[in-house]
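Attaching the record inline, Q. Sequence:
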Amino acid sequence: SVLQSGLDVLVATPGRLIDLYNQQAINLDQLEILVLDEADRMLDLGFIEDIRFIQMLLPNKRQTLMFSATFSKEIKSLAKGMLNNPIMIEVTGANSTVDSVKQKIYLVDKERKSEVLIHLINNNQWHQVLVFSRTKQGADILVLQLEKAGVSAASIHANRTQHARSHALEGFRNGNVVVLVATDMASVAYT
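Structure, as predicted:
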């Protein structure tokens, strides 16, 4: 297998990495760089114990990179336990918004969210709308509702192929897709 001959890069969820280790399919003795992407989401999803277990398997001499959209107390604690003299790089300040973005909130019954979204798109003649959905199924259902109402839409999430995600993003960029619906996880990875 590819794992037995050695790899330069292995991408895995914490649980899958532990499974591979327990099956003796991988040896982490030569690991040089560990990347924890979306560390805040991993903590939200309950992977903290898996991450701590993985840390015990790794060589002491390594570089660790941690990426996180937020820097909560839990992330600070994780960073303190895993990183040695870390350097923190922030892209923007906490809770900052771009001045050119207008923000509005609409209090809507859950059952009428799609209806209100379609109304807002049509009434305001919006040509490029990014919607975040909590679930992959919710994203796909919303796309069907938008298409049924005559609004071109596409979704990006983990169940879509890379080709389908790329096609959806390209359609959104060139204006063929008015509404791009992304799950929270996909929004970080693909937009």
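Residues 186-191 have pLDDT under 50 and may be disordered. Residues 49 and 163 are 34 Å apart (CA to CA).

More tomorrow.
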